[in-house]
């Protein structure tokens, strides 16, 4: 009896050809473990942007502090603007009252004081707007905001030092506290955009 005869019912069944691989799935050569996924090479995760610097997702702590100080300074500047306007109104009313009482020159003096007070109020209000604008722009601003903040903080520090020296010369503790606080705020506002973390924040890519 021959098992090689294809017509022999008692012979071995013919060998079936191997199943064809699934469509679209590349087959790994023998000895290579199968790849996960759908046959596409996996892309490595990028560690950061070109240059190796990761984009900072949150504002550095020193910049957050400087931002809070800018908002606090703006509140003080708004308060001064209101005080100047109030003083100007009082001076104008006093001058008018003096003129009504026959005091010569009171009206002109009152108007002069009122004009100076209004100018001071406008300057304080403009500085308050600048402080608020810089604080708001910290989140999306670039080099322009950074440089403006440094210059603004440095000028504020100079004015604070002048007030501090005047207060020290007067010997009054009440004349020292406010300029000292102002100098501290100005120093932090000035150095926050300059330190490496602040520089990296303002240089970060924006999409």
Instruction: Give the number of DSSP strands.
Output: 0
Mean pLDDT: 79
Number of helices: 5
Largest sheet: none
Give the overall shape. Answer: elongated
Could you tell me the radius of gyration in angstroms? 38 Å
SSE pattern:
HHHHH
Instruction: Give the strand content.
Output: under 5%
Uncertain stretches? 44-53
End-to-end distance: 81 Å
Global structural class: mainly alpha
Helix content: 55-70%
Question: Could you characterize the architecture of this molecule?
Answer:
The chain is mainly alpha-helical and 207 residues long. It is built from five helices and no strands. The protein has helices at residues 61-100, 106-137, 143-170, 174-191, 196-203. Helix 1 (61-100) packs across helix 4. The protein is elongated and about 70 Å long. The N and C termini lie far apart (81 Å). The model is unreliable at 44-53 (pLDDT under 50).
Keywords:
207 residues, mainly alpha, 5 helices, 61% helix
Quick overview:
This protein has 207 residues and is an all-alpha fold.
Secondary-structure blueprint:
Blueprint: H1 61-100, H2 106-137, H3 143-170, H4 174-191, H5 196-203
Helix pairs in contact: 1-2, 1-4, 3-4
């Amino acid at each position: 009896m021959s098992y090689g005869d294809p017509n022999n019912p008692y012979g071995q069944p013919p060998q079936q050809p191997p199943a064809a691989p699934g469509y679209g799935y590349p087959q790994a050569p023998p000895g290579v473990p199968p790849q996960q996924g759908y046959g596409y090479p996996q892309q490595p995760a990028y560690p950061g942007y070109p240059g190796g610097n990761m984009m900072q997702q949150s504002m550095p702590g020193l910049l957050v502090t400087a931002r809070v100080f800018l908002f606090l300074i703006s509140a003080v500047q708004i308060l001064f603007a209101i005080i100047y306007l109030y003083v100007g109104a009082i001076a104008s009313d006093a001058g008018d009252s003096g003129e009504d009482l026959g005091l010569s020159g009171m009206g002109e003096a009152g108007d002069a004081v009122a004009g100076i007070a209004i100018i001071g109020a406008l300057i304080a209000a403009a500085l308050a707007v600048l402080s608020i604008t810089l604080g708001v722009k910290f989140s999306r601003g670039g080099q322009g905001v950074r440089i403006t903040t440094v210059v603004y903080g440095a000028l504020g520090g100079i004015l604070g030092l002048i007030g501090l020296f005047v207060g020290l010369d007067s010997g009054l503790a009440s004349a020292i506290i406010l300029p000292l606080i102002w100098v501290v705020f100005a120093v932090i506002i000035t150095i926050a955009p300059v330190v490496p973390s602040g520089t990296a924040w303002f240089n970060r890519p924006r999409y």
